[in-house]
Amino acid sequence: MNYIKYVTIVLLFIVTVFAQDTRPTVAILDFEGQGISVQEVQTLTERMRSEIGSTNAIRLIERKAIESIMAEQGLAQSGCVSDECAAEVGQLLGVQFMINGTIGKLGDKYTIDVKMFSVETGEAERTVSSTHDGDIAGLLTEMQILAWEIVGLQAPQRLRLQRGGETDKPTVAVLDFEGRGISIMEAQTLTDRFTTSMSSTDRVQLVERGVMSEVLEEQGMTGAECSSQECAAEVGAMLGVQFMVNGAIGKLGDTYTIDVKMFSVATGAAESMKSVTYAGKVDGLIVEIELLAWTTLGLDPPKNLIKKQRRFAEGGQMSDGPAGGTNWMLWGGIGLAVLGGAAVALGGGDAGGDISGGGGDGGGGGSTGIGTPPTFPTPQ
Fold first, then answer.
1. Looking at the whole model, is its pTM more than 0.85?
2. What's the distance, CA 212 to chain centroid?
3. Strand 109-118 relative to strand 124-133: parallel, antiparallel, unpaired?
4. Could you give the percent of the chain with pLDDT greater than 70?
5. Same fold, 2-155 and 171-347
6. In the CATH scheme, what is the code of domain 2-155?
């Protein structure tokens, strides 16, 4: 009698709480194991339960409530593997969807098949699967990834990196630097050079610009509009990265200022803060950007970058060209950015590689100080 009261109270609590929430209600049954033990199946199923709750996409019934209902019916989770049994349990729980599946072993490979179906109609809402070649411990990550995919979401990058075995490198996303006195396109081009240089350190895993843009578009924003740390932290949480980098590039007369900050998404604490003031040719500004990518990570820059910095400090230039002439490298990058995206323009080059073109004068001609735009040849 007391047992029935407990179940009734649990169900009333669930109905009361969920009545105020419009997310779909879901219960997960222990998966069926084929070639692995019951304990291993329970551990892996519990990992999916934990991860699917963190998606915040559904309202998940607790394991205890499921066990209570099944005990009342004289069933064990491990024995309820058919869709008919799962649907019956789902009706007793009052949920909209049930998730069940199988985990099997074939030789040295493991397979996972997951299905979410409607309790009312019995129709499959979504199915996902995965094959893992390796130790059974790797299935923990697979279950976490499938937890996101079964509710129609992309798994965070941290999990995708774990799947690839790249867990030793911290995950980082770089937002477009804020431009002050320079154009948005110029700020994006310089940000891409910073990102390319940081990627060349081989010390971090960087989020691609395309992935970043998708997240920002979902929030109705662009990188230029997300300049505050609060916004950057929110984007970082959605990307599932450990660190975010944002900053600003300003121009005061013939002097440029660059401020860069890398902070923890989890705590908001600054991991690294760097500032540079530079007066000179724009090609030298690009070298400063590349150097900052290394020093922001606490790394010593390559010798070739340091040599370039010294040459600009001594008044040298990268290649022969008229003083105050067109900065072909940067304007070429911007031209390609207009056609196909700044990431395409600069993403393929080696950070710290030779920069070709004449040395544009930082204070010459244009309102932003980047130099006079070149005259591109027109198609015949």
1. no
2. 7
3. antiparallel
4. 74
5. yes
6. 3.40.50.10610
